[in-house]
Amino acid sequence: MAAMRSVILSRLMMAAAPKRYLHLTVAQAADKMMADPVEHATGREKVELLAKAAGNMDPFQLNVVKRAAGTKENPTIIPSRLDRRIVGCICEEDQTYINWMWIDKNSPKRCGCGYWFKMVEGEHLPGEELIFHH
């Protein structure tokens, strides 16, 4: 009788215990490809992806601009789609700091070292109106 009670108790405990299932699936969609990232992108990311697809590898004009002659007649041209931009000038080759200054569109500015900079209208991007509000 005690053995019977033990079997019944063990079955009741097993029935009351939570069942944990291990579910394994084989990659059923192995022949399908991920969706194009442009379809999921929005805002700045989408503008950047569209510009890069069109061949513009610096859509937000963040790459370093090499100084030109830097004279008042031939200043270093800084493209921008905004009305103001901050520009850094490394005045001497072995300088360990950057001289930062604000420049305004169509208003040339001279750095303390004597080099001139001028900001001009930059290239507009497709979908840009989604992220830049002038």
TrEMBL record:
CDD domains: Cyt_c_Oxidase_Vb (cd00924). One of its GO terms (cellular component) is respiratory chain complex IV. Zn(2+) binds at C89, C91, C111, C113. SUPFAM superfamilies: Rubredoxin-like (SSF57802). GO terms for biological process: mitochondrial electron transport, cytochrome c to oxygen. Pfam families: COX5B. Gene3D superfamilies: Cytochrome c oxidase, subunit Vb. Keywords: Metal-binding, Zinc. GO terms for molecular function: metal ion binding. PANTHER family: CYTOCHROME C OXIDASE SUBUNIT 5B, ISOFORM A-RELATED (PTHR10122:SF0), CYTOCHROME C OXIDASE SUBUNIT 5B, MITOCHONDRIAL (PTHR10122). This is Uncharacterized protein.
